[in-house]
């Protein structure tokens, strides 16, 4: 009889405790299983620990194991000889290396000298991309999505941009004019190696491809001439932006052609173009005025220019 009464008393207590959170002591809360959740497994996006499976807490909008010292967002969060495994978001031991050839199949040698999984579409330079694609901000982009001439960058928020190696690039007078992960080199903002570990970066930034980049995961917010890339890090904006979408966006004497305002030259003479704008002195076969390098470009991308030269506004220039 006493045993039966004890069971009756214990049942309500068990029900109450089954839904109680367990505090970890580090500010996070491990929530016991109480039904389906929108997110399962470490690394899932969450708003609170209630969105995570038992044993995980919600930190920075991600389900993680409390007090996990090996939690990571990118390879630079891990020590040399380890890489960040995307799904579990934990550092996994790997081999050290000096070249890609010293790594196992499907792995490449990263900036830390560590073999990491090769991400399809990712690139370190133009040699990683195939025909018809260009390496811009760590990804192989189709040429149609990139710029070749300066005018293709004129529709962006900043007017001080040039097309450098198929990316709209800020013109600078110092490092302060450049976005995160860049320094001012030869008058243009360019990516620069500045870290081997996220500990080399300021709070809120991670070491990504040897560059300190702000984390925009969850918020999607970046500042200045930056955008939140697919890896959820703020990268310098490179995308060409049309200046016009119709003739209404142009002066009365101009027409909108492929996102740029063009001046007609109905007589078919270069002289007519020079009277309108000396920077667009060529009257092409379509009876529109163009710059000389647009009609006779020296390069389409950096591969056309060789070592230590860049393709700037369709012209090969020394670095």
Question: What does this molecule look like?
Answer:
The protein is mostly beta strands and 319 residues long. The protein folds into four domains: 2-64, no CATH class; 75-117, no CATH class; 126-236, no CATH class; 247-295, no CATH class. 9% of the residues lie in helices and 25% in strands. The protein contains three helices and 24 strands. The protein has helices spanning 2-18, 270-276, 292-295; strands spanning 22-23, 29-30, 57-59, 62-64, 82-85, 90-93, 107-109, 115-117, 133-136, 139-142, 161-164, 167-170, 182-185, 188-191, 205-208, 211-214, 226-228, 234-236, 255-257, 260-262, 282-283, 289-290, 309-312, 315-318. The strands form twelve sheets. The chain has a two-stranded antiparallel sheet. Strands 3-4 form a two-stranded antiparallel sheet. Strands 5-6 form a two-stranded antiparallel ribbon. Strand 23 and strand 24 (315-318) form a beta hairpin. The protein is elongated and about 75 Å long. Residues 1-34 have low confidence and may be disordered.
């Amino acid at each position: 009889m006493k045993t039966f009464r004890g069971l009756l008393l214990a049942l309500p207590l068990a029900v109450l405790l089954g839904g109680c959170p367990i505090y970890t002591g580090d500010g996070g809360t491990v929530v016991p299983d109480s039904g389906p959740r929108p997110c399962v497994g470490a690394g899932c996006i969450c708003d609170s620990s209630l969105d995570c499976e038992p044993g995980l807490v919600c930190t920075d909008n991600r389900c993680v194991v409390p007090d996990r010292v090996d939690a990571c967002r990118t390879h630079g969060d891990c020590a040399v000889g380890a890489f960040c495994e995307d799904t579990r978001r934990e550092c996994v031991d790997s081999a050290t290396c000096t070249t890609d050839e010293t790594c196992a199949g499907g792995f490449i040698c990263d900036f830390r000298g560590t073999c990491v999984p090769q991400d399809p579409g990712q690139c370190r330079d133009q040699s990683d991309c195939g025909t018809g694609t260009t390496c811009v901000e760590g990804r192989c982009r189709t040429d149609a999505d990139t710029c070749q001439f300066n005018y293709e960058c004129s529709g962006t928020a900043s007017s001080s941009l040039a097309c450098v190696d198929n990316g709209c690039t800020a013109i600078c007078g110092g490092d302060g004019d450049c976005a995160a992960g860049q320094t001012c080199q030869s008058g243009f903002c360019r990516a620069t190696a500045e870290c081997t570990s996220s500990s080399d970066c300021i709070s809120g930034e991670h070491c990504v491809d040897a560059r300190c980049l702000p984390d925009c995961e969850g918020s999607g917010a970046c500042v200045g001439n930056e955008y939140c890339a697919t890896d959820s890090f703020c990268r310098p904006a490179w995308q060409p932006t049309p200046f016009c979408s119709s003739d209404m966006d142009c002066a009365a004497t101009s027409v909108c052609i492929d996102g740029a305002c063009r001046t007609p030259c109905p007589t078919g003479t270069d002289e007519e173009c020079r009277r309108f704008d000396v920077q667009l002195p060529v009257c092409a076969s379509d009876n529109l005025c163009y710059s000389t390098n647009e009609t006779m470009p020296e390069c389409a991308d950096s591969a056309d220019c060789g070592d230590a030269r860049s393709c700037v506004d369709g012209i090969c220039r020394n670095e």
